[in-house]
Write a structure and sequence with these properties.
The structure is a homodimer.
Chain A lengths: L4 H23 L5 E6 L4 E8 L4 E14 L2 H6 L6 E13 L6 E11 L4 E10 L5 H16 L5 H12 L1 E2 L4 E2 L3 E8 L8 H13 L1 H12 L6 H21 L1 H8 L4 H4 L6 E3 L11 H9 L17
Antiparallel strand pairs in A: 1-2, 2-3, 3-4, 4-5, 5-6, 6-9, 7-8
Amino acid sequence: MDPNKTEIENEMQSLQDRICAGLEKLDGEGRFKEDPWKRKEGGGGRTRTIQGAIIEKGGVNFSAVHGKTPDKILKALKLKESDFFATGVSIVLHPFHPLIPIIHMNVRYFEMSNGVYWFGGGVDVTPHYIDMDASVGFHESVKKICDASDRSFYPRFKSWADKYFYLPHRKENRGIGGIFFDRLDHKTENLTKSQLFDFVIHLGDQFVSLYTPFVLDNKDKSFSDRQKEWQFHRRGRYVEFNLVWDKGTKFGLDTGGRTESILMSLPPEAAWTYNFEIPPNSKERETQELLSLGEFPLPEKLQGSHDQ
Amino acid sequence: MDPNKTEIENEMQSLQDRICAGLEKLDGEGRFKEDPWKRKEGGGGRTRTIQGAIIEKGGVNFSAVHGKTPDKILKALKLKESDFFATGVSIVLHPFHPLIPIIHMNVRYFEMSNGVYWFGGGVDVTPHYIDMDASVGFHESVKKICDASDRSFYPRFKSWADKYFYLPHRKENRGIGGIFFDRLDHKTENLTKSQLFDFVIHLGDQFVSLYTPFVLDNKDKSFSDRQKEWQFHRRGRYVEFNLVWDKGTKFGLDTGGRTESILMSLPPEAAWTYNFEIPPNSKERETQELLSLGEFPLPEKLQGSHDQ
């Protein structure tokens, strides 16, 4: 049977609990602080933040809100009026260590009083330094999660992420991508609502496992001031993407969303240098060049999974 | 006689020279580096940046560009096609010292092949800590500059700045404002084109004098880690304004402007803390409360200058 909004909300809330427990274990020291909030127009959420040994600034937000559908959505869907309900979990982790990447995940569900609903979300990684083996490993794991639901998902959602996490004014990607998807329902996909719900929850439950290798492989490596400087520079680009191009952030700020929960995604510190110079033949240059490809280059084994 | 575009361009370029010379003197140590650039579609500019004893990161940009008028402007003016020419000087200075404010100025001229032209610009100050006496002094000086051209300018342009430099998602102003104006011509104002031109150049020439008292009154004061932390937090808000709300930045990035010159305005370093806590009865709280008024509160002597 198709899950209803209360079931989806409850499951999203438990997902937040499971992810926070997993991250506390991974970090080893940090403990989440919870900040519950209510939305004047209906609903609310629990914003949880952590500062630990590995994670310099992390947030795991759960929300379930409802009310009159915002005009922007009504306009896009050519509707006069409707009520909406939206619930989801979103995560951004900024690590101390410059060799550990930033990671972002979001799973969300939206429905309106006219019966229209959709699932959206994704997971993507923003390394300060791109390690190709680790990046391919991440994409392989994400592909496996996708393939368990639908073999068309990974190739479609991987391209969607490459396009979405792109900074036109820098002509570069935010990171190595991952997957991004939106407005999935039983009509757009060959899956039932219940199966789509299973997919997003399964993705959420794999979040900690997806991040773990990046943490364990790097946390004990030493790093230099130059690597920290590069990290701050890359974090500046992260800020630029989120504030200038990210549709979710824009939509949230425009429609009076909870600012502190939306901007939880911003790094603890970031830096901007005019015409930042990247030396040739450096690790920084290597990363910059990979980001400038416009898409994360997949090895053959991960391509064309459609008909395998 | 009305100045033509070449005369305006030349004067803007000399204005950049005069301001840079004045700022080098004020800073005492830093020297501007020049980065000349060309725009593929026509024209170019000279971006000058400084890192000195007082100024941690400063930029003074001159540009004079031309080409096909961007669609956004054509649409707003209900025009089919036209060529445009735009020239101006824009400045942002981020000081090291948390008691010295950030300052921004811009003067610009725009014209189209159909004869339409306008002047725009303004000057405004973003203190990390608002000192009321210094702030009122700044507004008095700006009023004097305005009054020399037209006694309606200051009250109109002061309100315009309060509205423009506002962060809706934070419900706060960026700083203490100043003046902001746009689309001034001989039809909107009781002044000739030549008089409007004199006004913007005169404003530009007063820039260094406007900043000087803020620098001299504070540069030798000691400051604490907590004040630096607050400075980084306030700089975060500066980033948020420029990337989320500033129409000039948005327009520049959307129309393929020169990214490094546009984002020269971003601070050297900024910080974001989830739910940053401001203690009651602190200098930080005082500043926060003044920013939350929605407009900079003027003393009586500066109000209603219209009919004095």
